[in-house]
Prior knowledge:
Layout: H1 10-16, H2 18-30, H3 37-50, E1 54-58, H4 61-71, E2 79-83, H5 88-96, E3 100-104, H6 115-121, E4 126-129, H7 141-151, E5 154-158, E6 166-167, E7 170-171, E8 178-182, E9 196-200, H8 203-212, E10 217-219, E11 222-223, H9 234-244, H10 247-264, E12 284-287, H11 291-300, H12 330-336, E13 339-342, H13 350-366
Parallel strand pairs: 2-3, 2-4, 4-5, 5-8
Antiparallel strand pairs: 1-9, 6-7, 8-9, 10-11, 12-13
Helix pairs in contact: 2-9, 3-9, 4-5, 10-13
Amino acid sequence: MKNIKFNELKGQHAYFGQSIEDAVKRVLESGWYILGPELEGFEQEFAKFNGNKHAIGVANGTDAIEIALNALGIGQGDEVITVAHTAIASAVGVCQSGATPVFADIDPETYLIDPAHVESLVTPRTRAIMPVHLYGHPVDLTAMKAICTKHGLALVEDCSQAHGALFDGRKVGTHGDVAVFSLYPTKNLGAYGDAGVITTDDSDLADKCIKTRNYGQRATYYSVMMGRNSRMDEIQAAILREKVKRLDDMTEYRQRIGASYKTNINGLALPVTRDNCSHVYHLFVVRSERRDWLKEQMAERGVGTLVHYPLPVHMQESFEFLGLKEGDLPETERAANQVLSLPLHFSLDDDDIKYVADMVNEVVASS
């Protein structure tokens, strides 16, 4: 029996070889560790990769949401429509900005924000829509932009699980007013610690984000606006510069695993890819009404799995203040009880990928 972990970052480090260690050494020997040439280089290179005019490195993806929303003038008393079927960090970032998250339900096939429900949630207090490109698949950005235009709202793309994914031939993070990316180690583009990045084509918005991340300063010791400390350090920036060079190759590797699973796994609801989209498979998520049993059976066969996400944000104790209850987001709650993520990482070889698929089929056939 094999022992296959749900995730294993050592394989990715091996994929990059000496280049990562050389990058770290370069920073250590430079004597410049914060807001230096490595960050500037990463920002330029990521902006070019993604097709944006500006990229602003920050400490993490949650801060990226807060800073982006505040740069748009969104804060206390405002509402931001997003989803409860996501990592809780998305909603926490909205709250950190001073705004209130309002949760839309999801499409049961893609697990992404449901445009029809979004429309029904718009109020005079709504200032932005923040769809999450969950699991690596883009949301319907045409629908999102239409709603934003109709109601005069900002579109903030949460791209933390979809680095490099395409919608209508353009990368996510280029369709809205501003976009946010987490660069947490497990992301498709991940640092070796916490990091995040904001992208936009609006120069004024970019300037506000740059100032905000560094105490509101326009120059050292000259603060012109209220800010905070949210700076990506030079070591993380140097590592990310090496990794963004090969992000397309890493994406192709993930897509190859996803394609293999889709070809070989039977009897479960598998990920879909819309015609005008590319899926970058941050996660490969299957669906079963007997999810917990499937998870246990896979563990008995040496395959690690995880649930993304077992308890929707609106049902978390920390969000009780919103006054929502079980049953308010039926598709979100149904997904939380049925989805299961399979291993998808750089330590998997072809035999491992086949083994995972075979074990899924074996379990499903025995049910």
